[in-house]
């Protein structure tokens, strides 16, 4: 743990004379944190924080978010600079190893990824067990979970070499597994990875190429995909990352942990939002329907949310959304695509940013508001949106898992609860339970 300052906070239970002095922990950036570990042992009380909005579950050196200012840093570097000047492989090295690579390190890293992109040939047979109309996220969860059945040689979580090989296997194989989930759903042959291609290029190649024809990946699309991967690479202790850490805290193997993360990402409140945004825009359909839809969103009785808006941490514009919006315009104009859904999205954003409901609740576009429109323009089917998010986020999950495994203070994650059920009572035989 870094920099514990000799500052304390005293917590007292009024009227009892009981109190405890708790240390404050300071990070390099962001608010200080009260270390409550002594609280239960001293005062016999827990803290209550459903949804964990006021709780730091770990210390981490990987990603920093200032939700009020709309700042996102990977290992200290602003996301805007990385999206503009870097590439996904470099960002993967940064997240996993803490620093941007020099030429030699970049080459080595790329080599390690490239030489793990194939999956065990028997994994192909796994796909046949799924229905063709299965959601690709269901297939992804299943196949990634099954990886631990194939790579026994890298499952010792206490061995740094095993952890490293597993990390490369996951980063490298996810695009192959994801692309095959898509190919399976459309009944086309699986395409094997091509070592001469870059990471994003390879992903697009395996999704779009077919064996009888040569396929050249459009460099504009490869660059846009690379940027989308960078923007989704990590986001500190979000739901899926916390799921990975919680699963990992039990000593589960990394493949099982990442499969758990994928399952957690799937929900529409998290990674499933990009798919939900597109369904929402398609349902709204025309500009004339935008205003009535926005009224529906504001009517709480309707339980309709403006998908792609709002965030647990960002109470300002999500910096990734800004880059996405710009990339969206670039991609659409370069491809000559005129998508009416973009006009709908722009109208909705304009209304939301000047409407009291959204302003007072600090609801701004998040990363998913524009990503669906870009992916659609790139010819990617809606059901693959969250799958691509999972591919991008794998490096974040793996980096966070590795950081946790290297932390000597790491313990099993085990939240407590406020029990509100029946008090202790005696068993009643069935005949005595009444009608
Ligand atoms: N549309 C309309 N109202 C909203 C929205 C929205 N998208 N998001 C939040 N609100 C309202 C809630 O109704 C609530 O109102 P209330 O105070 O009157 O009860 C208030 O804003 C706070 O909302 P919570 O759900 O308590 O906020 P929380 O931090 O728990 O949720 C979340 C954040 C899940 C992202 C939420 O904003 C949401 O559901 N957004 C839509 C789904 C989405 O885009 N998810 C992607 C998130 S980014 C990512 O995971 C990559």
Q: Which key terms come to mind for this protein?
A:
single chain, 435 residues, mainly alpha, binds acetyl coenzyme *A
Explain briefly what this protein structure is.
By secondary structure, the chain is mostly helical. It has helices spanning 39-43, 79-85, 88-97, 103-114, 123-128, 136-146, 160-186, 199-208, 219-231, 239-249, 254-265, 273-284, 290-298, 319-335, 340-353, 356-360, 368-377, 385-405, and strands at 8-13, 18-25, 33-34, 63-66, 71-74, 77-78.
Question: What do these coordinates show?
Answer:
The chain is mainly alpha-helical. Helix content is 49%, strand content 6%. The protein is built from 18 helices and six strands. The strands form two sheets. A three-stranded antiparallel sheet has the order 1-2-3. Strands 4-5-6 form a three-stranded antiparallel sheet. α7 packs antiparallel against α18 and α12 packs across α17. The model has no long low-confidence stretch (mean pLDDT 94). The protein binds acetyl coenzyme *A. Acetyl coenzyme *A is lined by residues 269-271, 273, 297, 305-312, 361, 363, 366-368. Acetyl coenzyme *A binds next to loops.
Mean pLDDT: 94
Beta-strand portion reads 5-15%
- Percent of residues in helical segments? 40-55%
Envelope shape: globular
**CA gyration radius, whole angstroms:** 24 Å
Flag low-confidence runs. none
Topology, number of strands: 6
Q: In terms of structural class, how would the helical and strand content be classed?
A: mainly alpha
Question: What is the N-to-C succession of helices and strands?
Answer: EEEHEEEHHHHHHHHHHHHHHHHH
Tell me the distance between the termini: 59 Å
Q: Give the helix tally.
A: 18
Bound molecules: acetyl coenzyme *A
Q: Numbering strands along the chain, what is their spatial order in the largest sheet?
A: 1-2-3
Largest sheet: 3 strands, antiparallel
